[in-house]
Amino acid sequence: MARTGGSGMRKMLIWLPLVLFGGFFILFASGLLKPDDRVITSKLVGKTLPAFTLPAAASDRPPLSSAELVTGKPRLLNVFASWCVPCAAEAPQLMALKEAGVEIDAIAIRDARPDVDRFLRRYGNPYSRIGLDERSTVQIAIGSSGVPETFVIDGRGHIAYQHVGDIRADDIPMILQRLREAG
Amino acid sequence: MKGIFALLMLLFSTSVLAQSALPPAPYADRQISDPALERKAKALMETIRCLTCQSQSIADSNASLAGDMRSQIRERIMAGEQPEHIRTWLIERYGDWVSYEPTADPVLWPLWGAPVLLIGLGLLLLRGRIKKRRRS
User: Fold this and answer.
1) For residue A48, is it within any domain?
2) What is the total count of domains within chain A?
3) Residue A83: which of B19, B91, B93 has the nearest Cβ?
4) Are B69 and A42 within 8 A, CB to CB?
5) Interface predicted TM-score of the whole assembly (ipTM), two decimals
6) Neighbouring-strand partners of residue A64
7) What is the pLDDT of residues A96-152, one digit of tens each?
C-alpha cells in the first residue's frame, strides 16, 4: 500500500519540472507581450498639493508658491523645462488651453532664467506665474517623474489629475473636462 | 573665460538624454564627510529606483533627476533624518515602485514563501533519496 502510494507520488513528481517550466513560460510570455508601461503616476493625486515657494523663472512673470494655486477655481500646473523637447511640442496646446480661458502656472525644472526667457519667446508664454525649481525639489515633492507633466489643481489646493507627458491636440477636450470636474 | 566655461559645459554634458545644462546639485556626486552618514545615505540610494532610467538605482544613474534625488537624500541624512523615513516619504509620492526593498504587501507573499517552499521540496526529495539508498 505504502509502496504504490510512493510510486504514485514519484510519477506525479516527474511532471513537476514540466509544470514549473509551463508556469514560468506563461509568466514570462505574458510579461513580454504586455505593452511596456513606464508611466509613473504621482501617488499624491487626490491629496493636498505639498507647500512650496519658488523664485521667478522668467523675467516677465511673477514667482510661484503653492498658496497661489488655491484660488477657488481649478487651474493647471505645468511642469516643464526649456531643455525639454516634448515641452516645446506641447506649447501650442497650452496656448490653446489658455485661449479657452484656463489659468496655467508652471514650474521650470533645472532651468536658468535666460534659457526660460528664450524658450518662452520662441514657443509662446501661456503661463501666469512660473517658479524656478533648480534642483527638482518641488518636482520630487509632488511626485512628478519627468517633464512635461501637467497637474489639475482644484480650487482648494488638491491635486485632481495628473497628465504625464506632453499634452497632444486630442488631449485638450479631456483636460478641459478634468478642469470642469475639479470645479 | 568663455572658453573655460564652454569646456566645463562639455565636461559635464551627457549624451544619454536631453538633460538640463545646470551643474549637478551640491551633494549629487559628493560624499558626506562623515563616513557613517555616507554609508547610511549610500545604502538608501542603492535601493531607490531611478525615475528616468527605470532599471537603475539612483546611485547608479546619471540622470539629472537621480542626481537631484541623491543630493536631497544626503542633505536630509545630514540634517538627521532616518533613511527609512525618507524611503516612506518617497513611497508616498511614487508608490512602492520607487523602492527596491520588498515590502510585506500581500502581493509579495509568494516571493517570501518561495524559498521556504523550495527548501521544503528539496528536503522531501532528499529524504526520498536517503530512504532509497538505505533500502538498497
Assistant:
1) no
2) 2
3) B19
4) no
5) 0.84
6) A54
7) 999 999 999 999 999 999 999 999 999 999 999 999 999 999 999 999 999 999 999
Q: A176 in a domain, yes or no?
A: yes
Please name the residue of chain B whose CA is at the shortest distance from the CA of residue A41.
B94
Distance from the Cα of A163 to chain B's closest Cα (Å) equals: 15
pTM given for the model: 0.81
Residue B103, amino acid: T
Residues from chain B that touch A111, judged by Cβ atoms under 8 A, are 20, 22
Contact A149, A164 (CB under 8 A): yes
Smallest Cα distance from B37 to chain A, Å: 21
Closest CA to A82 of A163, A166, A148, A153: A148
What's the grid cell of residue A128? 501666469
A146 in the same domain as A67: yes
* B64-108 pLDDT, tens digit each: 999 999 999 999 999 999 999 999 999 999 999 999 998 888 888
pLDDT at A5 (0 to 100):
53
- Please indicate, yes or no, if residue A44 is contained in any of the structural domains: no
Q: Which residue has the cell 511626485?
A: A143
A103 shares its domain with A133: yes
